[in-house]
Input
Amino acid sequence: METGHWTWLEVVKLAFGLLTPVVLAVGGIYINRITKRFEYAQWKSQKLVEKRLTIYDDMAPMFNDLFCYFTFVGGWRDFSPPSIVAFKRALDKKVYLAAPLFSDEFFAACREFQGLCFKTFNAPGKDARLRTHIAERQAAWVGDWKPEWAEHFSADLSEPRDVSLAYRRVMNAFASDIGVNPAPRAVHGTTRR
Output
């Protein structure tokens, strides 16, 4: 073998020797970028869940109060018709502000629930009306029933069972968007107290 001439095998060994650190460096950079993207996506997801939990803490009690009022359970007797209309206004604002942070299913469930509770678009400048029985409200009210409260009620009524099912859909959508998968639970007919 002559000196000064390279064999094919030596050239291949040299090329591999030079390319190995380059390939490892490029691969390391690529893996680092993927890791950073994954960490950012994880951080973003965690922040979104934290924000959704804050919104849940704010809105869930309002949904529950409406649920109680329209299904005649819990402290439903504690709410006057004007206070329920005020809940609707406050909840509408919160739902529409939160809509970009939640799924379409959550937003649709909220609208369905509120649609069962309230008759909207009655006339310009008129409040939403309660889709529930006025007679039972008057009979159970502790204190003086104000005659002007009658204008808060609609003749188009919803069944408490339908309201209960819609409420469950809102809570399930909340749970799903937060990352909690609730066990399916049947909602049986509501009892009036």
Summary: Confidence is low (pLDDT under 50) at residues 188-193. The two ends are 105 Å apart (CA to CA). Helices lie at 8-71, 81-98, 104-117, 134-140, 160-178.
